[in-house]
Amino acid sequence: MSTVNAAFEDLNDLAQSATAQFANAHTPAELENAKAQFLGKAGRVTALMKGLAQFSADEKKTRGAAINQTKQAIEVALNARRQALQEAELERQLAAEALDVTLPGRQRGQGGLHPISLTWQRIEQIFGSMGFDVGDGPEIENDWYNFTALNNPPNHPARSMQDTFYVDMNDADGHPYCLRTHTSPMQIRYAVAHARRQAAELAHGQMSEIRVIVPGRTYRVDNDATHSPMFHQFEGLWLGENVSFKDLKVTYLSFCKAFFETDDLILRFRPSYFPFTEPSAEIDIQFQHGPLAGKWLEVSGSGQVHPQVVRNMGLDPERFIGFAFGSGIDRLAMLRYGVNDLRLFFEGDIRFLGQFR
Ligand code: DAH
Fold it and tell me: Which domain does 162 fall in, by range?
């Protein structure tokens, strides 16, 4: 009887130690390992079952029944632990996927125009209000329009004023292509097209005035805080039989006042040199108030269109006089917005660009 009692105590211990080990298992894998120690092929309960063989039929019955009870108790503990682990796992998943409905929603980013585009549009609008047409022309230009027709012949030292990217290709007349260094070639293209449209009137000695601006991308071999290999200019051309330097001055001053939204500025026409104008002048602007007050800031080249250029337009320089200017769009945008590094415009940093709307 004592052996049987002892055996029952062992079985109690066995069930308790199984329950304790199951409680120590914190993952399904750990639990399966623990289970194997008791119920597996080499487990302790299985060993007890195998050991029954040595006992008499009666003893087999009582011992077998006791072992079975223990086995059942262990299985109950195992299932309870399994369930507990599953519930814990579910809790964990629910917590991980928790949705905080009080958080602010995700906003869809709102796009806006680039500051250079805003400036470009503003320039078109102001000159449009003064009766200027808006022209558009090729960025890959030939040598004739970019230089020669503008009175800047091959090998002339003035060509080095504008260091150029050449394209390894010639047009049908053998002129090499380059990325245009300025918007000035559009003076010729626009005037030639205008004269062609007005051929009948021209034959009767008349032609309506040319008043146009041409904004666009331009290219030079240049790269620092105030120069970029790609930049923007707009060309202005006013050509007719009764146009004078006064018109250029009034027009440009009116433009600056409208563009900067102030009357508190003055202009200076500083003598300069360009092959395609004679006389030529740089236009400097000076604000009378604000952070830039008192400084002369160069904003444009300008001048009276050279007679040879008028001739290259197919027009008679004895009759038609023109005034032209070429201004930097980026430069004007920098002054208007107070930006001190041109490269910021072209780096695509949303933190910078998002400030202009
Ligand atoms: N094309 C010149 C440049 O890029 C600027 C310029 C000067 C344009 C005088 C003009 C002009 O139309 O008359 O430096």
Answer: 115-356
What does the chain come to in residues? 357
Task: Decide whether any atom of ligand 1 lies within 6 Å of the 301 Cβ.
Answer: yes
Q: How high is the pLDDT of residue 2?
A: 42
- Report, in this order, helix, strand and coil percent for the chain, each rounded to 5: 50, 20, 30
Residues 127 and 54 in one domain: no
| pTM attached to this predicted model | 0.71
The 10s digit of each residue's pLDDT in 31-82 is 999 999 999 998 999 988 888 889 899 998 988 999 999 999 999 999 999 9
| Count of the separate structural domains present in the chain | 2
Sign of CA dihedral 312, 315, 320, 324: negative
| Tokens representing residue 203 in the block | 């034959």
Which segments of 198-268 does DSSP mark as H helices, in order? 199-203, 245-260
Q: Which of 179, 325, 330 to mutate to test the pocket of ligand 1 (most atoms within 8 A of CB)?
A: 325
The label of the residue with tokens 């914190």 reads 26
Question: How far, in Å, from the CA of 165 to the mean position of ligand 1?
Answer: 18
